[in-house]
Amino acid sequence: MEPTEQSAAATAELPPCGAGEEREEASLPPALRQRGQRSLIRAAMTASVIATTILGTTVPTLYLLGLGARELTIGVLVMLMSISPLGQLVGLRLVPRLGKAGVLLYGRLVQLPLAAGLIVLAGVGVSGDWVVLLAMGLFSLLAFVSSVSYTTWWPLVQDNVPGATLGTFFARMRTRLRAVEVGVPLLVGFYLASRPPLHRFALPFALGWVALAVGAWYARQIPELPAAAVERGLWGRMAQARRSPAVRRYIAYTSIYNFVIALFTAFWVVLLTAKPGNVFVGLPAGHVMWLAAVAHVLGLKFWARLVDLHGGRPALGISHIGAAALGLAWLALPSSHWLLTAWAAAFFLAWGFLDGGMLMARTCSLVRCVDRAHQSESFTLVALCASACGALGGLLGGLAFDWLSRRAAQHRPLGLDPRAIYLCVVQLGLLGAWLASRHLVGHDRQTPTRHLLGSLWRRIAGSFAGPPQAPEPRAPK
Protein backbone atom coordinates (compact mmCIF):
# COMPACT_ATOMS: atom_id res chain seq x y z
CA MET A 1 0.00 0.00 0.00
CA GLU A 2 1.14 3.48 -0.75
CA PRO A 3 2.33 5.41 2.33
CA THR A 4 0.27 8.52 1.78
CA GLU A 5 -2.44 10.30 3.68
CA GLN A 6 -4.92 8.55 1.36
CA SER A 7 -3.51 5.08 1.83
CA ALA A 8 -6.90 3.41 2.22
CA ALA A 9 -8.46 5.16 -0.75
CA ALA A 10 -5.35 4.68 -2.85
CA THR A 11 -5.32 0.98 -2.05
CA ALA A 12 -8.94 0.75 -3.06
CA GLU A 13 -8.08 2.42 -6.35
CA LEU A 14 -5.72 -0.27 -7.58
CA PRO A 15 -6.38 -0.93 -11.28
CA PRO A 16 -7.32 -4.35 -12.55
CA CYS A 17 -3.87 -4.87 -14.08
CA GLY A 18 -3.23 -8.00 -12.06
CA ALA A 19 -6.62 -9.53 -12.59
CA GLY A 20 -5.39 -12.12 -15.01
CA GLU A 21 -2.65 -13.49 -12.78
CA GLU A 22 -3.03 -17.01 -11.49
CA ARG A 23 -3.67 -17.52 -7.81
CA GLU A 24 -5.58 -19.91 -5.60
CA GLU A 25 -9.32 -19.24 -5.68
CA ALA A 26 -11.10 -18.26 -2.48
CA SER A 27 -13.23 -21.06 -1.01
CA LEU A 28 -15.82 -18.88 0.73
CA PRO A 29 -19.42 -19.65 -0.27
CA PRO A 30 -20.78 -17.36 -3.03
CA ALA A 31 -23.26 -15.66 -0.68
CA LEU A 32 -20.50 -14.79 1.79
CA ARG A 33 -18.26 -13.55 -1.01
CA GLN A 34 -20.95 -11.22 -2.31
CA ARG A 35 -21.54 -9.85 1.18
CA GLY A 36 -17.82 -9.40 1.69
CA GLN A 37 -17.40 -7.55 -1.60
CA ARG A 38 -20.21 -5.15 -0.76
CA SER A 39 -18.69 -4.50 2.67
CA LEU A 40 -15.22 -3.95 1.21
CA ILE A 41 -16.53 -1.39 -1.28
CA ARG A 42 -18.45 0.48 1.41
CA ALA A 43 -15.45 0.41 3.73
CA ALA A 44 -13.36 1.91 0.93
CA MET A 45 -15.94 4.69 0.48
CA THR A 46 -15.74 5.57 4.18
CA ALA A 47 -11.94 5.52 3.93
CA SER A 48 -12.13 8.13 1.18
CA VAL A 49 -14.21 10.38 3.44
CA ILE A 50 -11.73 9.93 6.30
CA ALA A 51 -8.81 10.74 4.00
CA THR A 52 -10.48 14.01 2.95
CA THR A 53 -11.71 15.24 6.33
CA ILE A 54 -8.98 14.15 8.77
CA LEU A 55 -5.99 12.34 7.27
CA GLY A 56 -5.41 14.43 4.15
CA THR A 57 -2.81 17.15 3.75
CA THR A 58 -5.01 20.20 3.23
CA VAL A 59 -7.36 20.11 6.24
CA PRO A 60 -4.64 19.49 8.87
CA THR A 61 -2.45 22.17 7.23
CA LEU A 62 -5.24 24.75 7.22
CA TYR A 63 -6.10 23.91 10.84
CA LEU A 64 -2.51 24.29 12.01
CA LEU A 65 -2.19 27.56 10.11
CA GLY A 66 -5.32 28.77 11.91
CA LEU A 67 -3.64 27.87 15.21
CA GLY A 68 -0.65 30.01 14.26
CA ALA A 69 1.75 27.17 13.48
CA ARG A 70 4.93 27.87 11.53
CA GLU A 71 6.01 26.20 8.30
CA LEU A 72 8.52 24.08 10.23
CA THR A 73 5.69 22.74 12.40
CA ILE A 74 3.76 21.69 9.30
CA GLY A 75 6.86 19.96 7.96
CA VAL A 76 7.19 18.03 11.23
CA LEU A 77 3.55 16.95 10.94
CA VAL A 78 4.15 15.72 7.39
CA MET A 79 7.14 13.77 8.70
CA LEU A 80 5.14 12.21 11.56
CA MET A 81 2.26 11.21 9.28
CA SER A 82 4.71 9.85 6.70
CA ILE A 83 6.16 7.33 9.16
CA SER A 84 2.70 6.03 10.06
CA PRO A 85 3.17 2.85 7.95
CA LEU A 86 5.30 1.59 10.84
CA GLY A 87 1.91 0.62 12.22
CA GLN A 88 1.78 -2.22 9.68
CA LEU A 89 4.44 -4.03 11.70
CA VAL A 90 2.03 -3.93 14.62
CA GLY A 91 -0.78 -5.08 12.33
CA LEU A 92 1.19 -8.12 11.17
CA ARG A 93 1.60 -9.22 14.78
CA LEU A 94 -2.09 -8.66 15.58
CA VAL A 95 -3.46 -10.77 12.73
CA PRO A 96 -2.99 -14.16 14.49
CA ARG A 97 -4.83 -12.83 17.57
CA LEU A 98 -7.62 -10.70 16.11
CA GLY A 99 -8.04 -12.08 12.61
CA LYS A 100 -7.85 -10.09 9.38
CA ALA A 101 -11.25 -8.42 9.65
CA GLY A 102 -10.68 -7.91 13.37
CA VAL A 103 -7.56 -5.81 12.75
CA LEU A 104 -9.54 -3.60 10.37
CA LEU A 105 -12.47 -3.35 12.80
CA TYR A 106 -10.55 -2.58 16.00
CA GLY A 107 -8.33 -0.11 14.18
CA ARG A 108 -11.40 1.93 13.29
CA LEU A 109 -12.75 1.71 16.84
CA VAL A 110 -9.48 2.97 18.34
CA GLN A 111 -9.56 5.96 16.00
CA LEU A 112 -12.97 7.11 17.23
CA PRO A 113 -11.82 8.75 20.52
CA LEU A 114 -8.85 10.35 18.72
CA ALA A 115 -11.14 11.95 16.15
CA ALA A 116 -13.47 13.05 18.96
CA GLY A 117 -10.55 14.92 20.52
CA LEU A 118 -10.08 16.91 17.32
CA ILE A 119 -13.79 17.75 17.25
CA VAL A 120 -13.62 19.12 20.80
CA LEU A 121 -10.47 21.16 20.07
CA ALA A 122 -11.97 22.72 16.97
CA GLY A 123 -15.39 23.29 18.55
CA VAL A 124 -13.96 25.12 21.56
CA GLY A 125 -11.89 27.31 19.22
CA VAL A 126 -8.88 27.59 21.53
CA SER A 127 -5.37 28.26 20.23
CA GLY A 128 -1.86 28.30 21.56
CA ASP A 129 1.35 26.30 21.43
CA TRP A 130 -0.08 23.48 23.54
CA VAL A 131 -3.06 23.18 21.18
CA VAL A 132 -0.68 22.92 18.20
CA LEU A 133 1.24 20.10 19.91
CA LEU A 134 -1.97 18.31 20.93
CA ALA A 135 -3.42 18.56 17.41
CA MET A 136 -0.19 17.26 15.87
CA GLY A 137 -0.25 14.31 18.28
CA LEU A 138 -3.86 13.44 17.43
CA PHE A 139 -3.29 13.66 13.65
CA SER A 140 -0.17 11.49 13.94
CA LEU A 141 -1.86 8.85 16.10
CA LEU A 142 -4.83 8.72 13.73
CA ALA A 143 -2.50 8.10 10.79
CA PHE A 144 -0.57 5.44 12.72
CA VAL A 145 -3.67 3.49 13.81
CA SER A 146 -5.07 3.78 10.27
CA SER A 147 -1.95 2.03 8.96
CA VAL A 148 -2.36 -0.71 11.57
CA SER A 149 -5.94 -1.36 10.51
CA TYR A 150 -5.20 -1.48 6.78
CA THR A 151 -2.45 -4.09 7.11
CA THR A 152 -5.04 -6.74 6.22
CA TRP A 153 -6.80 -4.94 3.36
CA TRP A 154 -5.26 -7.03 0.58
CA PRO A 155 -5.64 -10.41 2.31
CA LEU A 156 -9.34 -9.62 2.80
CA VAL A 157 -9.69 -8.75 -0.88
CA GLN A 158 -8.08 -12.06 -1.83
CA ASP A 159 -10.41 -13.97 0.50
CA ASN A 160 -13.57 -12.41 -0.94
CA VAL A 161 -12.76 -11.82 -4.62
CA PRO A 162 -11.90 -14.74 -6.93
CA GLY A 163 -8.99 -14.08 -9.27
CA ALA A 164 -11.15 -14.24 -12.40
CA THR A 165 -13.39 -11.39 -11.15
CA LEU A 166 -10.81 -8.98 -9.73
CA GLY A 167 -11.22 -6.63 -12.68
CA THR A 168 -14.99 -6.51 -12.30
CA PHE A 169 -14.67 -5.93 -8.56
CA PHE A 170 -12.29 -2.97 -8.93
CA ALA A 171 -14.44 -1.48 -11.68
CA ARG A 172 -17.43 -1.57 -9.31
CA MET A 173 -15.36 -0.06 -6.53
CA ARG A 174 -14.07 2.82 -8.65
CA THR A 175 -17.60 3.58 -9.82
CA ARG A 176 -18.85 3.86 -6.24
CA LEU A 177 -15.87 5.94 -5.15
CA ARG A 178 -16.26 8.58 -7.83
CA ALA A 179 -19.16 10.37 -6.17
CA VAL A 180 -17.36 10.38 -2.82
CA GLU A 181 -14.03 11.51 -4.24
CA VAL A 182 -15.59 14.44 -6.08
CA GLY A 183 -18.43 15.46 -3.78
CA VAL A 184 -16.79 15.37 -0.36
CA PRO A 185 -13.63 17.37 -1.27
CA LEU A 186 -15.70 20.01 -3.04
CA LEU A 187 -18.13 20.38 -0.14
CA VAL A 188 -15.34 20.59 2.41
CA GLY A 189 -13.40 23.03 0.23
CA PHE A 190 -16.36 25.38 -0.23
CA TYR A 191 -17.16 25.16 3.47
CA LEU A 192 -13.65 25.93 4.72
CA ALA A 193 -12.50 28.36 1.98
CA SER A 194 -8.98 29.76 2.44
CA ARG A 195 -8.81 31.21 5.99
CA PRO A 196 -11.60 29.59 8.01
CA PRO A 197 -12.07 30.30 11.75
CA LEU A 198 -11.10 27.46 14.05
CA HIS A 199 -14.62 26.41 15.00
CA ARG A 200 -15.51 25.64 11.36
CA PHE A 201 -13.14 22.65 11.40
CA ALA A 202 -15.40 20.84 13.88
CA LEU A 203 -17.84 19.86 11.11
CA PRO A 204 -15.29 18.16 8.79
CA PHE A 205 -13.78 16.37 11.79
CA ALA A 206 -17.26 15.22 12.84
CA LEU A 207 -17.91 13.94 9.32
CA GLY A 208 -14.69 11.93 9.57
CA TRP A 209 -15.80 10.53 12.93
CA VAL A 210 -19.08 9.33 11.41
CA ALA A 211 -17.18 7.73 8.53
CA LEU A 212 -14.97 5.89 11.04
CA ALA A 213 -18.01 4.51 12.87
CA VAL A 214 -19.72 3.42 9.64
CA GLY A 215 -16.48 1.88 8.38
CA ALA A 216 -16.18 -0.14 11.58
CA TRP A 217 -19.70 -1.47 11.03
CA TYR A 218 -18.86 -2.65 7.52
CA ALA A 219 -15.50 -4.10 8.61
CA ARG A 220 -17.41 -6.25 11.10
CA GLN A 221 -19.35 -7.82 8.21
CA ILE A 222 -16.37 -8.87 6.06
CA PRO A 223 -15.89 -12.67 6.05
CA GLU A 224 -12.41 -14.16 5.85
CA LEU A 225 -10.53 -17.40 5.32
CA PRO A 226 -8.27 -18.81 8.05
CA ALA A 227 -4.79 -17.33 7.93
CA ALA A 228 -2.00 -19.61 6.71
CA ALA A 229 0.31 -21.09 9.33
CA VAL A 230 3.38 -18.94 9.98
CA GLU A 231 6.58 -21.00 9.79
CA ARG A 232 9.13 -18.21 10.21
CA GLY A 233 9.41 -15.13 12.38
CA LEU A 234 8.31 -11.69 11.21
CA TRP A 235 11.80 -10.43 10.48
CA GLY A 236 12.69 -13.61 8.63
CA ARG A 237 9.66 -13.19 6.37
CA MET A 238 10.55 -9.52 5.80
CA ALA A 239 14.12 -10.48 4.87
CA GLN A 240 12.84 -13.07 2.41
CA ALA A 241 10.56 -10.49 0.79
CA ARG A 242 13.53 -8.10 0.48
CA ARG A 243 15.47 -10.63 -1.61
CA SER A 244 13.10 -10.15 -4.56
CA PRO A 245 14.79 -7.98 -7.26
CA ALA A 246 11.37 -6.68 -8.36
CA VAL A 247 10.55 -5.49 -4.85
CA ARG A 248 13.95 -3.85 -4.42
CA ARG A 249 13.60 -1.89 -7.66
CA TYR A 250 10.13 -0.74 -6.75
CA ILE A 251 11.37 0.36 -3.33
CA ALA A 252 14.08 2.47 -4.99
CA TYR A 253 11.52 4.16 -7.22
CA THR A 254 8.80 4.79 -4.64
CA SER A 255 11.33 6.04 -2.07
CA ILE A 256 12.53 8.76 -4.45
CA TYR A 257 8.95 9.61 -5.39
CA ASN A 258 7.76 9.97 -1.80
CA PHE A 259 10.83 12.01 -0.81
CA VAL A 260 10.25 14.50 -3.64
CA ILE A 261 6.48 14.72 -3.10
CA ALA A 262 6.93 15.44 0.61
CA LEU A 263 9.29 18.30 -0.20
CA PHE A 264 6.61 20.48 -1.79
CA THR A 265 2.94 19.38 -1.72
CA ALA A 266 2.25 20.36 1.90
CA PHE A 267 3.57 23.88 1.25
CA TRP A 268 1.32 24.76 -1.67
CA VAL A 269 -1.43 25.69 0.78
CA VAL A 270 1.01 27.74 2.88
CA LEU A 271 2.02 29.94 -0.06
CA LEU A 272 -1.40 30.27 -1.67
CA THR A 273 -3.08 31.30 1.58
CA ALA A 274 -0.45 33.89 2.49
CA LYS A 275 -1.70 36.84 4.55
CA PRO A 276 -2.82 40.01 2.76
CA GLY A 277 -0.01 42.52 2.49
CA ASN A 278 2.34 40.05 0.90
CA VAL A 279 2.77 40.22 -2.87
CA PHE A 280 0.93 36.86 -2.97
CA VAL A 281 -2.39 37.95 -1.52
CA GLY A 282 -4.80 35.45 0.00
CA LEU A 283 -7.03 33.44 -2.30
CA PRO A 284 -10.57 34.83 -2.50
CA ALA A 285 -11.80 31.31 -3.20
CA GLY A 286 -9.36 28.90 -1.62
CA HIS A 287 -11.54 25.95 -2.54
CA VAL A 288 -10.00 25.85 -6.03
CA MET A 289 -7.37 23.50 -4.64
CA TRP A 290 -10.10 20.89 -4.35
CA LEU A 291 -10.49 20.93 -8.13
CA ALA A 292 -7.56 18.52 -8.14
CA ALA A 293 -9.93 15.83 -6.85
CA VAL A 294 -12.34 16.48 -9.73
CA ALA A 295 -9.63 16.23 -12.39
CA HIS A 296 -8.16 13.19 -10.66
CA VAL A 297 -11.42 11.24 -10.83
CA LEU A 298 -12.36 12.39 -14.35
CA GLY A 299 -9.00 11.21 -15.66
CA LEU A 300 -9.09 7.74 -14.08
CA LYS A 301 -10.80 6.10 -17.05
CA PHE A 302 -8.19 7.49 -19.45
CA TRP A 303 -5.27 6.36 -17.29
CA ALA A 304 -6.82 2.94 -16.60
CA ARG A 305 -7.26 2.31 -20.33
CA LEU A 306 -3.70 3.49 -21.02
CA VAL A 307 -2.28 1.18 -18.34
CA ASP A 308 -4.37 -1.80 -19.49
CA LEU A 309 -3.29 -1.39 -23.12
CA HIS A 310 0.35 -0.34 -22.76
CA GLY A 311 1.40 -1.10 -19.17
CA GLY A 312 2.50 1.32 -16.48
CA ARG A 313 5.63 2.56 -18.27
CA PRO A 314 4.09 5.21 -20.57
CA ALA A 315 1.65 6.36 -17.89
CA LEU A 316 4.53 6.89 -15.45
CA GLY A 317 6.51 8.76 -18.10
CA ILE A 318 3.71 11.08 -19.21
CA SER A 319 2.47 11.84 -15.69
CA HIS A 320 5.87 12.33 -14.06
CA ILE A 321 7.31 14.49 -16.83
CA GLY A 322 4.10 16.52 -17.03
CA ALA A 323 3.96 17.03 -13.25
CA ALA A 324 7.62 18.11 -13.19
CA ALA A 325 7.05 20.60 -16.01
CA LEU A 326 3.99 21.94 -14.18
CA GLY A 327 6.34 23.16 -11.46
CA LEU A 328 7.51 25.92 -13.82
CA ALA A 329 4.09 27.54 -13.30
CA TRP A 330 5.21 28.72 -9.84
CA LEU A 331 7.53 31.19 -11.55
CA ALA A 332 4.46 32.89 -13.10
CA LEU A 333 2.38 33.15 -9.90
CA PRO A 334 0.21 36.30 -10.23
CA SER A 335 -0.55 38.83 -7.49
CA SER A 336 -4.10 39.84 -8.40
CA HIS A 337 -6.92 38.12 -6.52
CA TRP A 338 -8.83 36.96 -9.57
CA LEU A 339 -5.76 36.11 -11.62
CA LEU A 340 -4.45 34.11 -8.67
CA THR A 341 -7.76 32.24 -8.45
CA ALA A 342 -7.69 31.42 -12.17
CA TRP A 343 -4.04 30.37 -11.94
CA ALA A 344 -4.74 28.10 -8.95
CA ALA A 345 -7.77 26.55 -10.65
CA ALA A 346 -5.76 25.70 -13.77
CA PHE A 347 -2.81 24.44 -11.72
CA PHE A 348 -4.85 22.10 -9.51
CA LEU A 349 -6.91 20.78 -12.42
CA ALA A 350 -3.69 19.87 -14.25
CA TRP A 351 -2.12 18.40 -11.11
CA GLY A 352 -5.18 16.30 -10.29
CA PHE A 353 -5.21 14.81 -13.79
CA LEU A 354 -1.49 13.99 -13.72
CA ASP A 355 -1.67 12.70 -10.14
CA GLY A 356 -4.31 10.20 -11.26
CA GLY A 357 -1.85 8.84 -13.82
CA MET A 358 0.94 8.58 -11.26
CA LEU A 359 -1.35 6.72 -8.82
CA MET A 360 -2.76 4.34 -11.43
CA ALA A 361 0.65 3.44 -12.86
CA ARG A 362 2.35 3.15 -9.44
CA THR A 363 -0.22 0.77 -8.04
CA CYS A 364 -0.25 -1.34 -11.18
CA SER A 365 3.54 -1.68 -11.02
CA LEU A 366 3.33 -2.54 -7.32
CA VAL A 367 0.82 -5.35 -7.92
CA ARG A 368 3.04 -6.89 -10.57
CA CYS A 369 6.26 -6.76 -8.56
CA VAL A 370 4.95 -8.31 -5.31
CA ASP A 371 5.26 -12.09 -4.87
CA ARG A 372 1.93 -13.46 -3.64
CA ALA A 373 3.72 -15.90 -1.35
CA HIS A 374 4.99 -12.96 0.74
CA GLN A 375 2.42 -10.33 -0.16
CA SER A 376 1.73 -8.82 3.27
CA GLU A 377 5.42 -8.63 4.12
CA SER A 378 6.31 -7.14 0.73
CA PHE A 379 3.62 -4.46 0.95
CA THR A 380 4.77 -3.61 4.48
CA LEU A 381 8.41 -3.42 3.43
CA VAL A 382 7.58 -1.10 0.53
CA ALA A 383 5.45 1.12 2.78
CA LEU A 384 8.13 1.37 5.47
CA CYS A 385 10.93 2.35 3.09
CA ALA A 386 8.75 4.86 1.26
CA SER A 387 7.45 6.36 4.49
CA ALA A 388 10.97 6.84 5.84
CA CYS A 389 11.92 8.81 2.72
CA GLY A 390 8.65 10.75 2.86
CA ALA A 391 9.32 11.65 6.49
CA LEU A 392 12.80 12.90 5.63
CA GLY A 393 11.40 14.93 2.74
CA GLY A 394 8.72 16.49 4.93
CA LEU A 395 11.25 17.49 7.61
CA LEU A 396 13.75 18.95 5.13
CA GLY A 397 10.96 20.71 3.24
CA GLY A 398 9.66 22.27 6.44
CA LEU A 399 13.13 23.50 7.39
CA ALA A 400 13.75 24.96 3.94
CA PHE A 401 10.33 26.60 3.60
CA ASP A 402 10.51 28.08 7.09
CA TRP A 403 13.96 29.54 6.35
CA LEU A 404 12.78 30.99 3.02
CA SER A 405 9.59 32.44 4.56
CA ARG A 406 11.61 34.48 7.06
CA ARG A 407 13.70 35.93 4.24
CA ALA A 408 11.05 36.32 1.55
CA ALA A 409 10.54 40.06 2.14
CA GLN A 410 14.26 41.00 2.00
CA HIS A 411 15.66 38.62 -0.62
CA ARG A 412 13.80 38.42 -3.93
CA PRO A 413 16.04 37.06 -6.71
CA LEU A 414 14.85 38.28 -10.11
CA GLY A 415 11.88 39.88 -8.34
CA LEU A 416 10.40 36.46 -7.49
CA ASP A 417 9.39 35.10 -4.11
CA PRO A 418 12.10 32.59 -3.09
CA ARG A 419 9.38 30.20 -1.90
CA ALA A 420 7.96 30.04 -5.43
CA ILE A 421 11.44 29.31 -6.78
CA TYR A 422 11.82 26.54 -4.20
CA LEU A 423 8.52 24.93 -5.20
CA CYS A 424 9.51 25.07 -8.87
CA VAL A 425 12.92 23.48 -8.30
CA VAL A 426 11.82 20.64 -6.03
CA GLN A 427 8.84 19.77 -8.25
CA LEU A 428 11.30 19.26 -11.10
CA GLY A 429 12.74 16.51 -8.91
CA LEU A 430 9.93 14.26 -10.14
CA LEU A 431 12.13 13.71 -13.20
CA GLY A 432 14.43 11.71 -10.92
CA ALA A 433 11.53 9.51 -9.86
CA TRP A 434 10.64 8.95 -13.52
CA LEU A 435 14.22 7.88 -14.32
CA ALA A 436 14.11 5.40 -11.43
CA SER A 437 10.79 4.00 -12.69
CA ARG A 438 12.41 3.00 -15.98
CA HIS A 439 14.25 0.18 -14.15
CA LEU A 440 11.10 -1.46 -12.76
CA VAL A 441 10.78 -5.15 -13.58
CA GLY A 442 8.71 -5.75 -16.70
CA HIS A 443 8.96 -2.21 -18.08
CA ASP A 444 11.37 -3.34 -20.79
CA ARG A 445 8.46 -5.31 -22.29
CA GLN A 446 6.00 -2.40 -22.20
CA THR A 447 5.41 0.43 -24.65
CA PRO A 448 8.07 3.18 -24.32
CA THR A 449 6.70 6.66 -23.65
CA ARG A 450 8.33 8.20 -26.70
CA HIS A 451 6.87 5.52 -29.00
CA LEU A 452 3.36 6.09 -27.65
CA LEU A 453 3.64 9.89 -27.93
CA GLY A 454 5.06 9.56 -31.43
CA SER A 455 2.16 7.37 -32.48
CA LEU A 456 -0.34 9.86 -31.03
CA TRP A 457 1.38 12.75 -32.81
CA ARG A 458 1.31 10.96 -36.17
CA ARG A 459 -2.39 10.21 -35.66
CA ILE A 460 -3.17 13.85 -34.83
CA ALA A 461 -1.10 15.14 -37.74
CA GLY A 462 -2.80 12.67 -40.08
CA SER A 463 -6.25 13.88 -39.02
CA PHE A 464 -5.36 17.46 -40.03
CA ALA A 465 -3.84 16.34 -43.33
CA GLY A 466 -7.10 14.68 -44.35
CA PRO A 467 -7.66 11.25 -45.90
CA PRO A 468 -4.88 9.93 -48.14
CA GLN A 469 -5.48 10.55 -51.83
CA ALA A 470 -5.62 7.66 -54.21
CA PRO A 471 -2.74 7.56 -56.76
CA GLU A 472 -3.60 8.67 -60.27
CA PRO A 473 -4.05 5.80 -62.72
CA ARG A 474 -1.23 5.30 -65.19
CA ALA A 475 -1.89 5.54 -68.87
CA PRO A 476 -1.57 2.20 -70.70
CA LYS A 477 1.59 1.76 -72.75
What does this structure look like?
There is one protein chain. With 477 residues, the protein is mainly alpha-helical. The model is unreliable at 1-26 and 275-286 (pLDDT under 50). Helix 2 (30-53) packs antiparallel against helix 8 and helix 9 packs antiparallel against helix 14 (291-298). The protein is globular and about 65 Å long. The chain is built from 21 helices and no strands.
Per-chain topology:
Layout: H1 7-12, H2 30-53, H3 58-66, H4 71-82, H5 87-98, H6 100-124, H7 129-149, H8 153-160, H9 166-192, H10 202-220, H11 234-242, H12 245-264, H13 268-272, H14 291-298, H15 300-310, H16 312-326, H17 337-369, H18 375-405, H19 418-427, H20 430-437, H21 449-465
Helix pairs in contact: 2-8, 2-9, 2-10, 4-7, 4-18, 5-6, 5-7, 6-7, 6-10, 9-14, 11-18, 12-17, 12-18, 12-19, 12-20, 14-17, 15-16, 15-17, 16-17, 16-20
